[in-house]
Amino acid sequence: MAAANDIRKGAVIVEGDDLFLVLDCQHRTPGNLRAFVQATLRNIKTGISHDRRMRSTDKVEFAELETREMEYLYPEGDNFCFMDTETYDQMFVQRDLVASSIPYLRLNDKVKMQLYRGKPVTIDLPTSVILRVAESEPGVRGNTATNVFKPAKLETGLTVKVPLFVNPGEYVKVDTRSGEFIERANAPQ
């Protein structure tokens, strides 16, 4: 057991039989009151988020997570198939758990997956990925005096705003935290 002061964003805590992912965490010390921790928690099973206030001395149990390298193979209905790169075991992960990560993954991309007692909990994406532009409008001549952006649909179905000079077939680097265009890039190896 650890103190509530040790909670950080991205941690997974155990309460009863449920696991909660810490989406946001703020440590507060009001002038005339005792310190407390204000955390936004998401139940991993149900996907429901709620705010929770804890005294800084309250005890919490952190989940012991195992990190494995997994390869994204294919979607199947509401599940996504991943393969362990060491044991070659395949695992189906529900859409709720990976919905925010899938637009950044191409088939056969490798990711770090955290497991709790053999069940997937979270996926750690790299901070940026390189994706091919599948569709975009042609840039209009004369609109280059200022930073003008146009929507572009990438190979995974993700739509991002890119500068006018980016054309279909080119590769772009996208920030996975914000979903924003970073720069043009060379084809991934």
Outline the fold blueprint:
Elements: E1 2-3, E2 12-15, E3 18-28, E4 36-43, E5 49-55, E6 59-62, E7 66-76, E8 79-84, E9 90-94, H1 95-98, E10 110-116, E11 119-124, E12 128-136, E13 149-154, E14 159-163, E15 171-175, E16 181-185
Antiparallel strand pairs: 1-6, 2-3, 2-6, 3-4, 4-5, 7-8, 7-10, 8-9, 10-11, 12-13, 12-15, 13-14, 15-16
Can you summarize this structure?
With 189 residues, the protein is mainly beta.
Structure, described:
This protein has 189 residues and is mainly beta. It folds into 3 domains: 2-62, Roll (SH3 type barrels); 66-124, OB fold (Dihydrolipoamide Acetyltransferase, E2P) (Beta Barrel); 128-185, OB fold (Dihydrolipoamide Acetyltransferase, E2P). The protein has one helix at 95-98, and strands spanning 2-3, 12-15, 18-28, 36-43, 49-55, 59-62, 66-76, 79-84, 90-94, 110-116, 119-124, 128-136, 149-154, 159-163, 171-175, 181-185. A 6-stranded antiparallel beta sheet has the order 1-6-2-3-4-5, with no helix packed on it. Strands 9-8-7-10-11 form a 5-stranded antiparallel beta sheet. The chain starts with a strand and ends with a strand.
